[in-house]
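Data availability (excerpt). The following record was deposited with the supplementary files.
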Amino acid sequence: MKQFMIIETFRPGCRRKVYERFHAQGQLLPPGLVYLDSWLEKDGDRCFQLMETDDPSLLQVWTERWKDLVSFEVIELGEKPGARDAAVHFARHAQAWNAHDLERILAHYADDVELSSPFAAKLTDRADGMLHGKAALRDYFARGLQAFPTLRFDFVRLYVGVRSCVVEHRSVSGLHSAELEFDAQGKVRSVLGHYQS
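Predicted structure:
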């Protein structure tokens, strides 16, 4: 089956109505569209749902039943190795950042992680923007959370590779993208950060 990440954004003033319809009628999924998992953005109006089906047209049938209350972005993950891991990782990673939970953030990274980012050069003493190991990452992320108390990640787009992905998102200084490479345990072992100039 093909897998899809569906990003639901509640329309203004409709969050309560979404839950009322859900409790009264359920998810309203057509036969053949299978729900796998979901994550609600903390303190936000978005929900990330992972689904699978052999018939992608069923997604349109389903979204038609909710489009008066919710707008949708549908991302096909296909059957590439690591695709589901990438989508799941990003959803949980964004939740941890938006909760400003440093330990949950760091749990997504390998001990030998390497990060390269222009933003790291601004917040640390490393002019080259290169960080090595989880201890250095902890210091960098802690500085970021302290410097930007309203910091959050808003998802834009996900590109999936084999054991990697590229995530576009908006944060404190505009549009960003990050290339993430995963190790065999599904932890991030390499990060290449890019920022809109």
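Summary of structural features: Helices lie at 15-25, 57-64, 83-98, 102-106, 118-123, 134-147.
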